[in-house]
Amino acid sequence: MRKNPIVQRETLGAAVLQIRSGRATSRTTLAKALGISPSTTGLYVDHLIAEKYLNESGLNQGPMGRPRRLLSTQANAGWFAGVEFNAQRIQAVGVDFSGGLKVSEEVILPADVMADEVVKSILECVAKLAKEMQGPLLSVGIGVPGLVDAQAGVGLYYAFIPDWQLVPLVEKIGSKLKVPVILQNNLRAIALAERWFGMGHSLNDYVILGPRSGFGVAIVQDGRVTEGAHHAAGEVGRWLWPLMDPAGGGQELHHALSAPATWRRLAGVGEKTNLPEDLRAGLAAVAESAGPQWDAVCGDYARVIGLLHLIIDTGVFILHGPLTMLGERFCHSITEAACALMPALRDAGLKVVPSTLGDNAGALGAASLAMEAWSPA
Fold first, then answer.
1. What is the pTM of this model?
2. How is residue 347 annotated by DSSP?
3. How many other CB atoms are found less than 10 A from the CB of residue 328?
4. Spatial separation of the C-alpha atoms in residues 79 and 129, rounded to whole Å
5. 5-73 maps to which CATH number?
6. Which CATH topology does 77-193+361-373 take?
């Protein structure tokens, strides 16, 4: 094997990633995926088998040539924690070494929660997961709302937690758990969840739509999640709204297209009306709405998504969060409204679909962060 220990470790991690994803199922396909010689690949595989990270068993007979032995990951070699949060709740999952979801936890946060309380609750969630999982905890991924400096491990800013500014989350969590901690904006984490667990598995270009407490998007182009030069790619919730407001009233798109705002608009209630205890159920109750409110909401979404599509030219917009309860009808209405508003979109392949992943999407994406970043010691 290569003598540089950093290169060796990265290649071992890449080998596990290729096998876990199913892109490589044998030594031959793994060598092609890694772009290294079969003999060198064999040394890496032997090492990973000896360390009990991989299995090699069975025979796969192709249409030509000799049968190949099948490679797979050892599910009980360890586990990854994925945690995702917003101002209302924390969602956490434990996945085994093969990427299988084993256990989940949810914690409802109090109103006006502060940063230290969030950190404490994250640690408590991971401790609960550990009681149900087998093997050692290998890494923790965290999907963080707002602006995130993933490289520095810092949550920069989130408008809906009052003191969430420059929070050194990797230091606070990693010092307690003694394992690597990887941060990413929560919508970008959801983009990874789609790649591992949803419809993004075979897509290189897609956009995650995230109307939740606020509104944002995550952009995947050429198989890579876009972060931006200042960690702010996808923060469309900060757009002036309405877009052509000559008065410049200062309202942001968050206030019109977040999940709570959308429910209030569809339900025909005022801005100060309390939300239903179960927002998803509340949205399901208005999913068959018709009339001016429905048309106005779909028209606003159409304007935002249409403009984004003309800039990005993505393969598909995948809707996440509580608004998935509005179903395919909502997505179809947005598409039709966008094409009516901007006729050029009719030949531009605009497509909006609800995600098939549920409430665990952000936490699954955070676990995906941990899986993708892991490499053996």
1. 0.82
2. G
3. 12
4. 10
5. 1.10.10.10
6. Nucleotidyltransferase; domain 5 (3.30.420)
